[in-house]
Amino acid sequence: MDLTPYVESLQADLSAAAAPGGPDTERAAELLGHALDASVRLALLQALSDATAEITTRLHGPVVDVRLRGREADLVVSHLPAEPAPDPVTPQPAAADGGDLARLTLRMPESLKAHVEQAAAAEGISVNAWLVRAVMAAATATPSPPSASAPRRGGRRITGYAQA
User: Fold this and answer.
1) Residues 18, 33: contact at Cβ < 8 Å?
2) Would the pLDDT of 149 be above 70?
3) From CA 126, how far away is CA 129, in angstroms rounded?
């Protein structure tokens, strides 16, 4: 999807709005329109990303992604492999019902990021879709009781006798 017509339309609207102000105002609007080119493209890409994320949550199966190629955005629909039916006793998180989307900043080591990107690419889905699926799986998993050999968190007390 070429974003240029949308950016040019906005620049033309800005110039038309400035025309009654005279040639100096019109020139300033033209310069401002060109200066805003990158910001407008970024805002359009963000709107497309948010729309595809919302569409994906409402579709039960296909995943819609926005992929950037140069200055163009491509909308890609991927189909996830069929997963086994979930346990009827496993509660679904609130986001699975198509609720509101929230933005989250996630920081991770570069090596882990590379591993996540490879795993997502191997499955043919976006990193965001892969992470959402991983978080959903972790959130719906039933916690297992701690094993006796697992170290206990909290206060540690050492008792006994030592000789040097």
Assistant:
1) no
2) no
3) 5
